[in-house]
Amino acid sequence: MDELVEKRLDPFFRRLEHRDALGMAEQQALIKAVSAFEDVGAGADIVREGDRPERCTLLVSGFAARYRMVASGERQFTLIHVPGDFIDLHSFPLKEMDHSVMALAPCQLAIYPHQAIKNITEEFPHLTRLLWLLTLLDGALQREWIICLGRLSAEARAAHLFCELGARLEAVGLGAADDYRLPLTQQDLADTLGLSSVHANRVVQSLRKKNLLTWQANRVTLPNLAAAKALGEFDERYLHHIREPR
Amino acid sequence: MDELVEKRLDPFFRRLEHRDALGMAEQQALIKAVSAFEDVGAGADIVREGDRPERCTLLVSGFAARYRMVASGERQFTLIHVPGDFIDLHSFPLKEMDHSVMALAPCQLAIYPHQAIKNITEEFPHLTRLLWLLTLLDGALQREWIICLGRLSAEARAAHLFCELGARLEAVGLGAADDYRLPLTQQDLADTLGLSSVHANRVVQSLRKKNLLTWQANRVTLPNLAAAKALGEFDERYLHHIREPR
DNA sequence: CGGCTCGTTGACAATAATCAAGCGAGGTGG
DNA sequence: CCACCTCGCTTGATTATTGTCAACGAGCCG
Q1: What pLDDT digit, counting tens, does each position of A18-67 carry?
Q2: Which residue is closest to B74 within chain A, CA to CA?
Q3: pTM for this structure?
Q4: Do A142 and B142 touch (CB under 8 A)?
Q5: Do residue A139 and residue B74 have CB atoms under 8 angstroms apart?
């Protein structure tokens, strides 16, 4: 049983190992803390604004996004999650959700009861700092998006996003920085970039015309990764892919 | 000596007490962990992108902002800090700064060596969760700004910002939600809202014309707070001003 | 076959940036 | 004490970017 859990948590462990070494006891604690696995279909909400979840959710496979609706009826994503991400680890200290998370594609989830996380914080200070770190990585991605939304053109933001997703997916063993599976619609892209779907479409076509992007049948490739990074001002420092004691 | 420290940390303790009760030992630990106080002048950087600080910095008085520059030479703020905020608590788990923080006005800072924070994480699990919580509150503010930048008009974003700052300053005892001191320039506002300074100015004037804002000599008042909140779609849930066990 | 969703296109309107100039208060030095 | 200088704020004219509205086509699934 534990072997199955461990296998499913592989992207998660890769994500952690990119930042610090994990002790055997810590790894076991993370495996034991999983109470269940669940599946949700594309488009379903995983948690909702206002919820007070009693559990945290780790994305095992699929894609998910944190979002909120605004009065005009538009949606804005604040973060796209890839496998290995904790979707709502912050709900453990924060208690109440101030936003929702939806599945962008069929997802498998690993469930961590808050009580199990609390036990970790009481018994494993170093592991606690790593969990803390994970929530801070979310914050770093969100800072980056503020900068992109505030100061980059729509085209540069799109290039940045495709570079970011490539780097994150590669880090968890799910593709290459310039070649990965991405089951999103152009509306999803628009909701990430803060654009109308019409304009998102035009931006995608412009990137295609410049030979910076192909995106068909849920597969993204970046034929000229260096140029895409330059256009999107992508500097992966903010991903903190540095393994060191925390 | 400790009384002086405690007095200076008053906004910080207020900020914490808005979220959870603090034990006497925890309070003492937070007081003892301060190694020094420092002053910085307006415009100075407090920490810089790429730094690997050995200490965390708490804002005692003044205003500061996290920011990054983009290739065009423009600046984007990702968060404005008010007294009682930890400016770079995240540097403790994250190690390397992926952005800079500057003083927007003369600031007094309390210094917490990373080692002192680490000791807290080894000895005070509940207090550790509260520190974690504080970094998550930064994340919540940043999420909110993604939503504002992505989906609200410039005018709505400005209204939102003035409401947010009022709520945060009131919570630490430094003004009222509709009346507070704000020593920022219009350029600072532009860098927060992701606008040019010219457009920021026009937005301010539009709010003035609608009798939603006065802003002279560093003093902000919101004559019609309800209308400002409505325009900016300001719902303070994301501030998590809820006192409960964490 | 028909009804979805998703992607695409064109014409037009709204929002915000850019460029250029001038104003006014506060501080500095002669 | 006053001239001058700087910084922040303001304004107008113009351009660039992005949104809105409307329509249509391709592919998939029941």
Answers
A1: 999 999 999 999 999 999 999 999 999 999 999 999 999 999 999 999 99
A2: A151
A3: 0.96
A4: yes
A5: no
